[in-house]
Design brief:
Blueprint: E1 3-5, H1 26-46, E2 50-56, E3 59-65, E4 69-70, E5 74-76, E6 82-84, E7 88-92
Parallel strand pairs: 1-3
Antiparallel strand pairs: 2-3, 2-7, 4-5, 5-6
Length: 93
């Protein structure tokens, strides 16, 4: 399966995301959450973007973006756009 690189995650694209969990077990979900927190801190301290790999509309996509805020269900990225945590496969920073 190929990964599609997108330059910017538009607000309209968030409607393509579903709440179905993409990671199979709680341990992987906990690791993802911890990586999101680290990525948020990285942006808040040194303004370094992170790469988010996520599933959207049946495709796997990636975007380089600042992570402003992380909650249990949502991640706030650039321009106030929110992404469901359950759609995120990985975070690279």
């Amino acid at each position: 399966m190929s990964i599609k690189q997108i330059n910017e995650f538009e607000k309209e694209q968030s409607s393509e995301l579903t709440a179905n969990e993409v990671l199979p077990d709680r341990e992987l979900q906990a690791k993802r959450y911890n990586k999101l927190i680290c990525a948020m801190q990285l942006w808040n301290v040194v303004h370094e973007k992170s790469r988010i790999i996520f599933r959207s509309g049946g495709e796997i996509k990636t975007v380089d973006t600042p992570i402003w805020f992380v909650s249990e269900k949502y991640v706030c990225i650039n321009a106030g756009v929110t992404v469901l945590v359950s759609c995120i496969l990985d975070v690279i920073f």
